Amino acid sequence: MAVLETPGAAGEPEIEVQIRGLMLDPVTNMPIVVLKEVGSDVVLPIWVGVFEANAIALELEKTETPRPMTHDLLRNLAKGLNATVRKVVVSDLRADTFFASIWMEQGGETVVIDARPSDAIALALRWDCPIYVSSKVMRHTRQNNAETAANVGADDLKRWLENLNEDDTGQYKM
């Protein structure tokens, strides 16, 4: 488990994750970003909007666009203001909604900005900075996955998420 030494805003340790895949939910046809804990098989699925998934997919595939997309604009704006994005953190889960923060540094000061996880992830990809999930969110997710798995039966959901392969994720194609 890769845990950031410095706790997040809530004092909780942060667990480093990587994007495991970007896929469509087979039931709802909504995009899912699947985050995987570094050094572990623990996964965190986050349902996102179609436009945000497209922004993530474009960067994962290193696709050039003729004009800056919104997340490219945000990167360019931060660079123009001499700021650097240091990390993004999926920091909370309330009423089935994930919350995130973007940690930036400007002029020697840390600035933390509230964001949707999909936007934070899209920006993190453009800055090539680490993505973290608070340990509180991971604990809550593990608990919910266990409850859902009990309802689905025989840990089918957990196995499905943990055994994703490149064909399942479509190699980031939407």
From TrEMBL:
PROSITE patterns: BFN (PS51658). Signal peptide: none annotated. Residues 14-145 form the BFN domain. Pfam families: BFN_dom (PF02577). InterPro entries: BFN_sf, Bi_nuclease_dom. One of its GO terms (molecular function) is nuclease activity. PANTHER family: VON HIPPEL-LINDAU DISEASE TUMOR SUPPRESSOR, VON HIPPEL-LINDAU PROTEIN. This is BFN domain-containing protein. It comes from Granulicella rosea.
